[in-house]
Amino acid sequence: MALDRLAEVAAPAARVGFGLAAVGRPGYITLGRDRDLPDDRTVDAMRERAYALLDAAYAGGVRYLDAARSYGRSEEFLADWLSSRPDAGDVVVGSKWGYAYKAGWRVDTDVHEVKDHSLAAYERQRAETAELLGSRLDLYQIHSVTPDSPALTDRALHERLARLAGEGVTVGLTTSGPAQADAIRAALGVAVGGEPLFRAVQATYNLLETSAGPALAEAHGAGLTVIVKEAVANGRLASAGQEPAELAACAAESGTGCDAVALAAVLAQPWAGVVLSGAATTGQLASNLAAASLVLDEEHLARLAALAEKPAVYWRHRSALPWQ
Asked: What does the DSSP assignment read for 140-173?
């Protein structure tokens, strides 16, 4: 499995991945993006920013790169960067299908993306991804599965995904919402021909939203690679002026940024394989990567554990974040 290659990379930063959600399109819901991204958010300007971040990530030891069909031109930017960097043949590339980008390169729009987990959507988006990433695609995930998603019960879709796995692409899913644990456990029961279909799961987990933790531990125990997204809670745990006081105190004591502490707390989970950085600037990325070598003691971890919110509260707050 392609994701197994990550275990062969000695650099600690290999456990930190880089996601292009914020730089593959002109707007996103992470706090501070109005300041972090260039005022002129043309395609060329965003491509240049993406290249700079990918260069910095690779130089810093990152070996997992994350895109999606709904992240604007993220797959295009990533494909072009890969073509320009023949020395980066050791990176593992993941992307997702199930959401279509609908914003038309605008931030001021009512609809940014539309969800569709049907077999027809898979076939269409798989062809689009293949045209851009070709044989460089290692992991293809169903985007934002919830317990009621038809992707968990559509046998025709499962058969088609199993064929993709037979072609050498790892099949996975990402989850979202307050019932992530239910979706993960349902996915663990999906099999084709007696073999588990999903070999990777990507979920939201951070100091404020820990409810998926037990299910992610079960997934890890079942042999799935666990990838964590939104480890800084869309900026709430980074340097956006909204950091909890206890997090700020731990950061001051450790001599790092709040973002590094938040990421390190996730990396400390025994089931966490790769934790994604969603940095929009090279400075943020450098700060995020400091987490790879930061070891938090039990006292710090216990203090930080008290920050967890009820899932319904966390996801209600997240759904209210503006695109910027």
From this structure: EEEEEE-TT-GGGT-HHHHHHHHHHHHTTPEEEE
Report the candidate in 49, 267, 120 with the shortest Cα–Cα distance to residue 256: 267
Mean of per-residue pLDDT scores for the chain: 95
Token readout for 124 is 């269409």
The domain limits of the chain are 2-319
Instruction: Report pLDDT digits (tens) over 293-310.
Output: 999 999 999 999 999 999
| pLDDT tens digit sequence for 273-300 | 999 999 999 999 999 999 999 999 999 9
Q: How far apart are CA 40 and CA 64, in angstroms?
A: 28
3-state SS, residue 219:
helix
Structure-block tokens of residue 85: 């960097």
**What CATH number labels 2-319?**
3.20.20.100
Please list, in sequence order, all residues whose beta carbon lies within 8 angstroms of the beta carbon of residue 71, skipping any fewer than 6 positions away: 20, 21, 24, 25, 101
